[in-house]
Amino acid sequence: MQDILIDGLRAAYDAQLRGVTPPGGSARIEKDGPLTRVVGRHRGLVTGPRDLAVYGAELDALIARQRDFYAARGEAVEWKTRAHDLPADLTDRLTAAGFVAEDSETVLIGQSADLAADPVLPDGVSLRRVTSRSDLRRVAAMESSVWGEDWSWLADDLAARIENAPENTVVLVAETRTEVVCAAWLVFQDGVDFGGLWGGSTLKAWRGQGIYRAMVARRAQLAAARGVPYVYVDASADSAPILTRLGLHAVTTTTPYVWSP
Length: 261
What we know:
α5 (133-147) crosses α6 (153-164). It is built from 8 helices and 12 strands. The chain has helices spanning 2-16, 56-73, 90-96, 112-115, 133-147, 153-164, 211-226, 240-246, and strands spanning 28-32, 35-39, 44-47, 77-82, 100-101, 105-111, 126-130, 169-175, 180-187, 194-202, 230-235, 249-259. Helix content is 36%, strand content 29%. It is of the alpha+beta class and 261 residues long. The mean pLDDT is 94. The protein has 2 domains: 2-106, no CATH class; 110-252, 3-Layer(aba) Sandwich (Aminopeptidase), CATH 3.40.630.30. Strands 1, 2, 3, 4, 5, 6, 7, 8, 9, 10, 11 and 12 form a 12-stranded mixed β-sheet that branches. The termini are far apart. It is globular and about 60 Å long.
């Protein structure tokens, strides 16, 4: 029975979530054969259907064309792969073309109504939806601290998404009176049965206090209230066990293959 459930969730994922959300701002979406690519963000993104139906030398040429397209722009590019993609040698051919695998994540899907709950936060922490540039810069600064690298680009990225589709991008912060301690966002696509759970980073000193779970619960509430039946997330090795315990189901893994100029 569990296998049937997961197969159904994976099939819905493949049918509805193989494209990308409208990027907003100066970014744009383009098509190249079976592929969808995003141009104009901090780095490019390439994704496609489960089965590209392109093989051998033709597939090598398709891969090289994406690499060379972004090389001409002086931009890095991420090719988003999933473990059940076809053809089976796609990742080998990406590697041969100079793409490098980053850490894999687990794709988890859950029912919004089952996950929805009033968020429970530690004393002194409150949850708030944010839209202003100043708040988004605070989010980017917190992410930079968590990951130990420059995430300043995130403020402009989120601002463009909010400007382009304010009803489809919900950015939440958990904060004390003085600092943002966690941030996460929920992204909808019109006509799609899934809300995307993104972000969810928490400052080290505030981990283990239920803030991440509270963010999931609140975003599931918002999805359920909108009539969106499922939420999904690409979860890190740290987050996947928490989300599985909350009731999300692993349907595949995803690995970014990145080429940088």
